[in-house]
Amino acid sequence: MTLSPPRLAPVPLVDLAAAHAEVAQEVQAGFARVLATTQFIKGPDVAAFEEEFAAFCGVRHCVGTASGTDAVELALRAAGAGPGDSVLLPANTFIATAEAVLRAGARPLLVDVDPEGLLMDPARVPDALDADGGGRGVKVLVPVHLHGQLAPMEDLLALARRHGLTVVEDAAQAHGAKRYGRPAGAWGRLAATSFYPGKNLGAYGDGGAVLTDDAELADTVRLLGDHGSRHKYVHERHGFNSRLDTLQAVVLRAKLTRLADWNARRHAAAERYAALLGAMDGVLLPAVLPGNQHIWHVYAVRVPHRDAVLAHLQGHGIGAGVHYPVPVHLQPAFRPFGYARGDFPVAERAAEELLSLPLFPHITAAQQERVADTLATALAATQ
């Protein structure tokens, strides 16, 4: 009798179970503590996490929110963006960045990205300002730190100063990343981040935070996110319900103590991919901008015939994905803003070529070798 070879276990894009196994006992004890005290809203774990994460990011203040999208919106509102204003943001980002601009009542004004890092291109900002009638209505500039590395902040800050803009960082994919030694979240007047489960620092549900060195802005964000109220039943302004859940704060505190180590493991895995894929025909490795300390939230290569390659990988148990297949300006929901195909060619081409490979702190060398072998086979089959 001929035995068939054993079926290999799939390689997930992200393995949340492995991360949970490291923190499970600490989280269980924390949950038990919260359940015993029933301090489910604005409990001491929230305050402790806000203090710890602010210190981690090198800023004075952190305000927890219910989601990363809320964090961007509240940061924009605190920065004064609203109806009649425009907000600059890159065309290559998750839709939430642009959604938050709309929720604040402002207009998203898109900027193409550089061809290597695929981050907001300072050289393209003047084009966007010209498209807005010279930038008279532009209030805020939102650089997005994509895939785990920072946008070219020194150039973007210089542009912001020149045009009188407030900088609000979208640091949702950059927990622990640095540029010339300065952490993500510590460059702009404000920064917003997300703790969606798949992030480097991920909760067990939605969560987010706003970071700032400005006590007054932090107070405004906290006020906006808690029904415009400092004292129960006294509402100073129109606000929202967007608070970080106490149980999520327990999870985040447990994971934060391990984040530096997990980021180091991601870095080692990225170096392993570079060695495995560097000489592979048809694969363009991700570029790291000079001065950046990348924390590899996403390991995205560029390949020809991307969709066919992706289908081959997924069909062979490799949990590859795409960030993001449709740029913001080509989304059906953004048709009213008058953008068209060809307006942001760098972002559009990247959307057709980017392929995210499995990467997480607990990925093994054997798993990465299998990914590389399967990718080579996929490329050969799709030529």
UniProtKB/TrEMBL annotation:
The protein, known as: DegT/DnrJ/EryC1/StrS family aminotransferase
Gene3D superfamilies per record: Aspartate Aminotransferase, domain 1 (3.90.1150.10), Type I PLP-dependent aspartate aminotransferase-like (Major domain) (3.40.640.10)
Species for this entry: Streptomyces antnestii
Family: Belongs to the DegT/DnrJ/EryC1 family.
Superkingdom per UniProt: Bacteria
Record's keyword terms, sorted: Aminotransferase, Pyridoxal phosphate, Transferase
Active site: 199 (proton acceptor)
SUPFAM superfamilies: PLP-dependent transferases
InterPro entries tied to this protein: DegT/StrS_aminotransferase, PyrdxlP-dep_Trfase, PyrdxlP-dep_Trfase_major, PyrdxlP-dep_Trfase_small
N6-(pyridoxal phosphate)lysine PTM positions: 199
GO MF, one annotated term: transaminase activity
Any matching Pfam family: DegT_DnrJ_EryC1
A single BP term in Gene Ontology: polysaccharide biosynthetic process
